[in-house]
Specification:
This protein has twelve helices and nine strands. It is α/β, with parallel strands linked by helices. The strands form two sheets. Strands 5-4-3-6-7-9-8 form a seven-stranded mixed beta sheet, with helices on both faces. Strands 1-2 form a two-stranded antiparallel ribbon. Helix 8 links the parallel strand 4 and strand 5. The protein is elongated.
């Protein structure tokens, strides 16, 4: 079977089974993982015959995807802010919309509202995508914090792979005690129980600890984080567009000023941030 024939067959299977919103892309990602060919080479070599061992591997990969395992977990990689992060079932898969969280921090620094000289912590770091990206973009140290030691293991892998050094990590429920932070950035769990029950199969494969925000409105973790952050410099939080106004209210209650809401790639409100003066 040729590369092109395998892509076509796999794309059709994914469409028939309804396992992906991007069946063609998923097929190409699996093919690239098995052959080492990027998309350009796949196109140039479209008529090349796949070897038996490649077909066996591809059948295994395709079966995993048809069973509902997310593509990022199958290939062990997800691109975020132009960098490839290692991911597995221990961590949430980074989303393109979360890049807005990074961009919001960078813009606040550029505008002089906050300073890159201040200590930075990424709370609930997961794969480390947000904190490591900030460390790479700003050439600075960022503390990576998570309640999950398994997630911190993944973050350390990504820190070494992307930065060539290991950022400090700490196992903590929200903010570690005894330190002062100038910039607190977080993509915390914020889904309600109802929203968790309604997510598709791909999302159900991700850690529940990284999804469920607790409380009827999914904001119990964010409430605690905002309260803990009120003695620090600034706070940048990602949440659902249905929660941004309420989260902005929490910021105001705890004395934050310059409170702003940023929209994501779909034009939906996504990031709430503010500073303490």
């Amino acid at each position: 079977m040729t590369l092109n024939a395998w892509i076509a067959e796999t794309k059709n299977l994914f469409i028939e089974q309804g396992v992906s919103d991007t069946p063609g892309l998923d097929a190409r990602l699996l093919l690239g993982h098995a052959t080492g060919y990027d998309q350009g080479r796949q196109i140039v070599n479209a008529g090349e015959e796949l070897a038996i061992h490649q077909l066996d591997l591809l059948e295994n990969l395709r079966s995993q995807r048809l069973a509902g395992r997310p593509i990022a977990y199958i290939i062990g990689s997800k691109e975020f802010y132009g960098r490839s992060f290692y991911v597995d079932e221990r961590v949430l898969i980074p989303r393109p919309d979360t890049e807005i969280l990074v961009e919001t921090v960078l813009k606040a620094i550029e505008d002089g509202v906050v300073s890159s000289e201040d200590s930075i912590i990424d709370v609930g770091t997961g794969s480390g995508a947000v904190g490591i990206t900030l460390a790479a973009e700003l050439d600075c140290m960022v503390l990576l914090s998570d309640i999950s030691c398994d997630a911190l293991d993944v973050a350390r892998i990504n820190s070494r792979r992307i930065l060539g050094r290991e950022l400090e990590t700490i196992a903590s429920d929200l903010l570690p005690l005894g330190r002062k932070y100038g910039i607190i950035v977080s993509n915390p769990p914020y889904l309600t129980d109802e929203w968790v029950a309604a997510v598709d199969q791909n999302v159900r494969s991700e850690p529940d600890l990284a999804l469920r925000g607790f409380g009827e409105d999914g904001l119990d973790i964010i409430r605690a984080l905002v309260a803990e952050s009120s003695n620090h410099g600034s706070l940048f939080i990602e949440c659902d567009y249905r929660q941004t106004k309420q989260v902005a209210g929490l910021f105001e209650e705890h004395g934050f000023t310059n409170i702003s809401i940023q929209r994501d790639l779909q034009g939906l409100e996504r990031v709430v941030w503010g500073v303490r003066t």
